[in-house]
Design a protein that fits this description.
CATH architecture of the largest domain: 3-Layer(aba) Sandwich
Pfam families: ABC_tran
Number of strands: 10
Radius of gyration: 18 Å
Order of helices and strands: EEEHEEHEHHHEHEHEEHH
Shape: globular
Strand content: 25-35%
Protein name: ABC transporter ATP-binding protein
InterPro entries: AAA+_ATPase (IPR003593), ABC_AA/LPS_Transport (IPR051120), ABC_transporter-like_ATP-bd (IPR003439), P-loop_NTPase (IPR027417)
Organism: Rhodobacter flavimaris
GO molecular function: ATP binding
Helix content: 25-40%
Structural class: alpha/beta
Distance between the termini: 38 Å
Number of helices: 9
Bound molecules: adenosine-5'-diphosphate
Oligomer: single chain
Amino acid sequence: MSLALENVGVAFGGFQALAGVTLAVEPGQVMGLIGPNGAGKTTCVNTLTGFQRPTTGRVRLEGRDVSALAAHGFRREGVARTFQAGRLFGGLDVLDNLACTGVGLGQRRAAAEHEASDILGWMGISDLESRPAAGLPYTDERRVAIARALMGAPRYLLLDEPAAGMSEKEAADLADLIRRIASERGIGCLLIEHNVGLVLSVCAHVVVLDGGRVIEAGDRAAILASDAVREAYFGA
Ligand code: ADP
């Protein structure tokens, strides 16, 4: 079981953003995706969630070729994501933000509200339920965006720079949450982060991209020992 890119290339006009990328996220695992700016991380996430079609290669979900599936199809098939900016419905309260997503996934309103309330409770943020999304402090907004992504019990969750703009303490709390999402809910997570320390502390497996190619993949020790990674980040 996995959500995988198989030898994926993505070209924008003549520009090759990804070339021959192969990686797989497994249920219950937190995988990290790091690399310098422009390495192709967001393009990977977009391709794994139907926001970008591969030019070559395949996207596979539990072995099935889903390369042609649209973004809402991925969501319905259990692949959720968060965005760099929250993208909440500002005019609705937090519970409604989650419930609307559930309804969009085919749930009845009452069931969606029930699940929304459960998720907020599980995350320890039930106090936010009736707060308008528009007025939320930044870190709460990010947590609500993650809560919303958990609606409909996805099997995979892709997090695009969830710790951006957070303090060290807030990032550590976020790291705990991501670990719990994987271990307690069995969700396979892919974490893109500029904060490499956070990635190495949370992820058992890390893939490093540079120039649209995988230049290293392995556990924390392998990444820290890699000459290719050092060169990509520090040019030495
Ligand atoms: P990262 O997330 O690692 O910073 P991206 O995946 O955002 O990298 O981008 C990889 C490369 O592809 C960059 O050079 C970027 O400018 C280019 N790129 C991304 N999206 C597009 C697009 N829609 N059109 C043209 N070029 C793009």
